[in-house]
């Protein structure tokens, strides 16, 4: 990754685009357990202070939740895979068909009876999306409940207003016409001429990888193993992402593009490699 680090550090204008779960923090058994490690908020605060650079967290979580987890004044936030967006210090913009939102409320009630916590399911109502987490469910039961979840969505939601998204042990119903790629394109359009770096771990990040690649940026898959992806580079885990971001900040600081002092933190696992 040295060549990428050198290229990024040399850019006078850049945009860091970071997924949250699996990228900045390790994947947890339940969404509420994936908390920011010691030093993450400080690191992001320092990165947002780099002259000429912007920093965004692009996540499946809601903007409200991201603000609680990452109280960093200078962060741009994209929530619910692009259905919510917020600039620093501004309100949340939601991209959602009103008919979909109303129908989703009825789907939540029906799905709540389907997803039983004692069987390992977590139903997450995001207001403009609905996610069924099954990481702790038995595989056979997860398959059955997943099929019933999709049938309920087809029953309750107007055709053409929604999209089914599969991720790491999760099924999510979200508004049609929203994805991380479109959200990232919108962010970059506001800051033309910047070098974009996108870090993500899930299939939900592939749209963003393709967007950044088309614009001549750097796409980094966060995964301990290689897999088919639009990203050209790979880091093993969130610890390696932290290391890359910390080194970027240090090098920018050495050229007058940063500040002083840097937090350190490690997750289990080491190593990096290049994909493709």
Automatic annotation (TrEMBL):
Keywords: Hydrolase, Magnesium, Metal-binding. Its cofactor is Mg(2+). Pathway: Glycan biosynthesis; trehalose biosynthesis. SUPFAM superfamilies: HAD-like. Belongs to the trehalose phosphatase family. InterPro entries: HAD-like_sf, HAD-SF_hydro_IIB, HAD_sf, OTSB-like, Trehalose_PPase. The keyword Methyltransferase does not apply. The keyword Hydrolase applies. One of its GO terms (biological process) is trehalose biosynthetic process. Its EC number is 3.1.3.12. Residues 255-276 are annotated as: Disordered. This is Trehalose 6-phosphate phosphatase. It catalyses: alpha,alpha-trehalose 6-phosphate + H2O = alpha,alpha-trehalose + phosphate. Removes the phosphate from trehalose 6-phosphate to produce free trehalose.
């Amino acid at each position: 990754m040295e060549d990428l680090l050198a290229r990024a550090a040399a850019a006078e204008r850049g945009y860091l685009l970071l997924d949250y779960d699996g990228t900045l923090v390790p994947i947890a058994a339940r969404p509420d357990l994936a908390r920011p490690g010691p030093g993450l908020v400080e690191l992001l605060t320092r990165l947002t202070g780099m002259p000429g650079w912007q920093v965004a967290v692009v996540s499946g979580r809601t903007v409200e939740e991201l603000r609680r987890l990452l109280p960093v004044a200078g962060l741009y936030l994209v929530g619910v895979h692009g259905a919510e967006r917020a600039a620093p210090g501004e309100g949340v913009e939601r991209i959602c068909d009103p008919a979909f939102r109303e129908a989703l409320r009825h789907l939540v009630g029906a799905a709540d009876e389907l997803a039983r916590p004692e069987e390992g399911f977590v139903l997450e109502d995001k207001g403009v999306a609905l996610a069924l987490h099954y990481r702790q469910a038995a595989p056979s039961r997860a398959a059955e409940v997943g099929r019933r979840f999709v049938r309920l969505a087809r029953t309750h939601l107007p055709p053409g207003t929604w999209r089914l998204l599969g991720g790491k042990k999760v099924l999510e119903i979200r508004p049609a016409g929203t994805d991380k790629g479109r959200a990232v394109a919108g962010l970059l359009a506001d800051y033309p001429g910047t070098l974009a770096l996108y870090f993500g771990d899930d299939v939900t990040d592939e749209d963003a990888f393709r967007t950044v690649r088309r614009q001549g940026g750097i796409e980094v898959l966060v995964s301990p193993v290689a897999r088919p992806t639009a990203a050209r580079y790979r880091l093993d885990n969130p610890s390696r992402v932290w290391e890359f971001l910390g080194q970027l900040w240090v090098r920018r600081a050495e050229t007058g593009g940063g500040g002083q002092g840097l937090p350190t933190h490690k997750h289990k696992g080491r190593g990096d490699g290049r994909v493709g």
